[in-house]
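Task card 7
Instruction: Convert sequence to structure tokens.
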Amino acid sequence: MTATAFKQKPNTFSASLSADKLSLKHGKISIIDQLNVTLPEGQVTAIVGPNGCGKSTLLNGLSRVHTPSSGVVMLDGKDIHSLPSKEVARRLALLPQDTLAPDGITIEELIRFGRHPHQSLLRQWAMDDQEAIKYALQAADLEGLKDRLLDTLSGGQRQRAWIAMSIAQETPLLLLDEPTSALDLGHQIEVFELIRNLSRQGKTLAMVVHDLPSACRYSDHIIAMKEGEILTQGSPKDIMTKELVRELYGVDCDLMPDPMTGSPILINIRRLKS
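Output:
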């Protein structure tokens, strides 16, 4: 899929998402303590760091899946936990790492679930809903597969179907937890390019990413975490250094600019000398 694979549908509204002194726990164990985060609007933010550093916990906190032990998450200047669920769902979509769909469901049927926040007793299925589904299929390059059963798809096609459901939700904010997990290289690129295409429309996206080179290439903003803290954040060009890679992952590397994008490329990755 290329950047010109579909006619872009610009957002008609935007939304801001931030956290102030956010603390999150699993039971009595503190995972994140007093973090301040603001997602740059209209950009892709990659949350990176070693396993267990709190990346997914932060994403769940920002999406109100995880209730803070202290601090506040603000959606458009309001405490996200004070807002009705459907109001949040019309502004923010979350694609978790582990997704589960009913057996025997087609791609189009899955995508229809994305329209649920827009339904009510007074507003049933309308032409706008069908247009949103049509656009989501086009954006995810799934028009020719809409009648295929979800469980017959490749990993990359299945992940694009889930993202298409989020596109149909028509939110200005989209959070994704490891969207390329368990995908081969080709399918990873498909998903990352779809995410980049969505940002070009003005959507604000945040994704948990394990692959640091991909984070540098496909994001505008990086949040680097370790042990529940943010070590640094900023554009890949501004923050990515050999010292940061060593601090995050305990490896040495060299950096060079990508000849096409100018973003940092990690080369000569090696274990630290003892």
